[in-house]
Write a structure and sequence with these properties.
This protein has 334 residues and is mainly α. The protein is built from 16 helices and 2 strands. It has one domain: Farnesyl Diphosphate Synthase (Orthogonal Bundle).
């Protein structure tokens, strides 16, 4: 199993991400030292910085080989990562999560009120950074924050809903996850001043990648360990969030599907969660869901086909393909 995305393996991208990291820390400095500490918590915890990397990779499709991106691209990358971090602060409050990225979550360490306010602060700083890049970038980021909320609300409406449909699942993940990947790519392209057809193609790529990313993440929640995830596995089942493999297992209507359906619709104890994960793993629906993710990866690759000659485009497509490679060994071993 490959451990590093082809995009993140490029020395130029790694160097640019160092610049993003520095700018991220500068962006969350507040007059109050406590707010700075809370707002910096998940930045200090690390992370792959996938969304900034996609903004950088998108900007790099302008030329055949990779070169350092402009300061505007770095700031655009910072704006999307701040939105992502702010959403994580809020998500952890809603989920009552105790850990995030292998460290104590902000809500667990300081409390829900502090986590909510710090999340709001991160979103405000994201908007401020985006505004410095022009009205189109600022408007795009604001619209994306709205899509994140819409997708999350759709998921909340279906909490503990045994009859959750695939259509509503896909609508939710398009908003809560894929929209920010699409915006990351679009902001990278806009701040690099790319032609409009290329901007649109990169946006299409980011949307398809984001859909695949969330499907893969949902599969991992059902087959990976706590250590592999960096957070408690099976959390979606316990919280009543029924993802694609679960929806499809129930829809089969066979003995296993009926057994799983009988366990859903209410708060699930740890023992039931482990049994439910085993039922889904045995159903074959993990593999079927990964096939759906594969379809999104193919759509992402097709979007960038006209720009296949650039190193940045090749690295982005490689990152999409790596997404599936990174989960297949785990799903097979489960």
């Amino acid at each position: 199993m490959a451990t590093t995305s082809p995009l993140l393996a490029l020395p130029t991208v790694r160097d640019d991400l160092v610049r993003v990291e520095r700018a991220l820390r500068e962006a969350v400095v507040a007059d109050d030292p406590f707010l700075t500490e809370v707002a910096s918590h998940l930045i200090e915890a690390g992370g792959k910085r996938g969304r900034p990397a996609f903004a950088i990779g998108s900007a790099a499709t302008a030329q055949p080989t990779m070169a350092p991106v402009t300061n505007d691209v770095v700031l655009g990358s910072v704006s999307v990562e701040l939105v992502h971090l702010g959403s994580l602060y809020h998500d952890d409050v809603m989920d009552e999560a105790s850990t995030r990225r292998t460290v104590e979550s902000v809500n667990a360490k300081w409390g829900n009120l502090q986590a909510i306010l710090a999340g709001d602060f991160l979103l405000a700083r994201a908007s401020e950074v985006a505004a410095s890049l022009g009205t189109e970038v600022a408007g795009l980021l604001a619209a994306t924050i709205g899509k994140l909320c819409e997708g999350q609300v759709l998921e909340l409406q279906d909490t503990y809903n045994v009859a959750r449909s695939e259509q509503r699942y896909f609508a939710s993940i398009a908003g809560k996850t894929a929209s920010l990947y699409a915006t990351s790519c679009r902001i990278g392209a806009l701040t690099a001043r790319l032609p409009r057809d290329q901007v649109d193609a990169l946006t299409e790529f980011g949307l398809a990648y984001g859909m695949a990313f969330q499907i893969v993440d949902d599969v991992l929640d059902l087959c990976a360990t706590d250590e592999q995830l960096g957070k408690p596995a099976g959390h979606d089942l316990i919280e009543g969030v029924y993802t694609l493999p679960v929806i499809r297992t129930v829809a089969r209507g066979d003995g296993a599907g009926r057994r799983l359906e009988a366990m859903l619709g209410r708060t699930m104890p740890e023992t039931d969660m482990r049994e439910a994960r085993a039922i889904v793993r045995a159903s074959g629906e993990l593999e079927a869901s990964l096939a759906a993710a594969q379809g999104q990866v193919l759509a992402a690759s097709r979007a960038l086909a006209p720009f296949a000659s650039s190193q940045g485009s090749c690295a982005l497509v490689g990152a999409a393909e790596h997404l599936l490679e990174s989960v297949s060994a785990i799903a097979t071993a489960a």
